[in-house]
Amino acid sequence: MSVWPSLVEIALSPWGLVLVVAMAAGTAAWIHGRRNPAVHGMFEVAANSKLLSCDLGKRQGKIYRCDGLCGSPDAVFRQGKTIIVCDYKDRPMPREHSLYVRFQMILYMGMMARLFRRHKIEGKVGYRDGVMPISHCEGTYAELIRLIPSLKQARKKF
């Protein structure tokens, strides 16, 4: 007979039950922090996608920095080798994205493409009544980045 108690004996002891419940609660909290059904549903993203960052509600999203830019998309998910960049607009879904929304998302997706080089990048814009996909255009991203020096010069005039 072993001097050390078996795992079953530990689990059935009063302290063992406390330990098991604490481990279960900790695991559930960790999983819940990585999977938020409300955020996943808002952007029609698969429930098994990992939420990398979220700037909705009381959450403070991660600020991403790249190519002289910084930004915080409303949500960023990873699903396998795909990064899904999402932004929410509290208005009805239009027939097409405005130029502002298109350029904002291209900047976000371009930053993600540079930061997650081995991943495919997808974009989604959530509206009150639906979700619209948006595609990334590396050429447009490069053109927008090229505007930064002239924008900084123009800003000095204000």
Automatic annotation (TrEMBL):
This is PD-(D/E)XK endonuclease-like domain-containing protein. The chain crosses the membrane at residues 12-32. The lineage of its organism: Bacteria, Pseudomonadati, Pseudomonadota, Gammaproteobacteria, Salinisphaerales. It comes from Spectribacter acetivorans. It comes from the Bacteria. Keywords: Membrane, Transmembrane, Transmembrane helix.
